[in-house]
Amino acid sequence: MSSAAPVSARITALDVLDVRFPTSEHLDGSDAMNPEPDYSAAYVILRTDATDGLEGHALAFTTGRGNNVQAAAIAALASHVVGLSVEEICADLGAFSRSLVHDPQLRWLGPEKGVIHMATGAVVNAAWDLAAKRAGKPVWRFLSEMSPEELVGQVDFRWLSDALTSQEALDILRRAEPGRQKRIARLLERGYPAYTTTPGWLGYSDEKLARLSREAVADGFALIKLKVGASLDDDIRRMRTAREAVGDGVRIAVDANQRWDVAEAIQWMRELAPYRPYWIEEPTSPDDILGHAAVREALSPIKVATGEHVANRVVFKQLLQAGAVDIVQIDAARVGGVNENIAILLLAAKFGVPVCPHAGGVGLCEMVQHLSMFDYVAVSGTVEDRVIEYVDHLHEHFVDPVRIGEGHYLAPALPGLGAEMHQASLKEYAYPDGPVWSARL
């Protein structure tokens, strides 16, 4: 009698945890629109019955009270995931992503934007973490070793084909393919350029701003970023303080976090222009394509950057089509996960616009570094005028925290996406019953 065929491993649970850090107490993360954020993670664990014991970990980032809403949205996807074959998900992550995005009833809540789309992104990213762990590779390398055809298969080209066809995407990837191994070697040797926002939070004193700015330059960062937008007089003084601290050879970017209308953005930035800001980030609403184009035209050569709150690949497409941005800022936890970020990287490559990711938040540095490193190896083939944001907060809570050396992200070596947190941290900062919060509440 022949033995029974082996049973395929299945997803057995999608756990969602509400994890929050009281960063508002020291004004870490403070800006003109978010004066007292508590960096938070709607944290996802994909559990399986596979004998390898591997799990998929990811998160959606919020700034506090919205975390329970985000967690509920992620939990609503559980019925779409639990019971699926682990092998089938990992073999076709593009199909898995589309199955979540295209649910005809849940997508009504977007479509493909907002809380439900961020929830999809968290689950999709957890699946990539699981797949990369099963392959024994960090996600950046897992992606970089896929064929151009496999990578194109990850992308949903619906609503993109007027700007980027699947054939054009394939051509971009094929052009970059010959130099992949050389770029992997360089990445492992040197890392990927970083910039730091650590000195620039709006709640910091001038003394702290100057000290942290000098320390950033000493640590090898060639670009720092300041938050602006609450008070023009304060911004002028802080820009002057930062410029005096770092000298003329270091770039200073500024970030308004959507604070201004278009005319106000132009007027405000003209006042800061003597201190040579490199870019103005989120000068107005992230949905205002024409507004960004007007700001860019008025302020050149100051660059315009946006993307951390851009809802999906379609808005990125329009920003690029309209010539509205000089810098594309992807975010690992805003859009529909790795798959949609691949689409955005390909769009940016098509239009020749550099990508400098947003990473100000818990776990965002850990996740988004993989996307930029993949972009360098397999898509754009360059790090010129490209940097990943670095924020020196909360990395100690992660199993595989980011590593920075001489102003560069050092390439992750452990398998996965880097979002897995220590069990002790998940328990201690659980909201509202973890010890940190029960003591405060």
From TrEMBL:
Keywords of this entry: Lyase, Magnesium, Metal-binding
Enzyme class: lyase
Cofactor(s) required, per the database record: Mg(2+)
Cited Pfam families: MR_MLE_C, MR_MLE_N
Reactions catalysed: L-fuconate = 2-dehydro-3-deoxy-L-fuconate + H2O
Mandelate racemase/muconate lactonizing enzyme C-terminal domain span: 206-302
Domain of life: Bacteria
InterPro entries: Enolase-like_C_sf, Enolase-like_N, Enolase_C-like, L-fuconate_dehydratase, Mandel_Rmase/mucon_lact_enz_CS, Mandelate_racemase_C, Mandelate_racemase_N_dom, RHMD-like
Keyword Metal-binding: yes
EC number of this enzyme: 4.2.1.68
Record protein name field: L-fuconate dehydratase
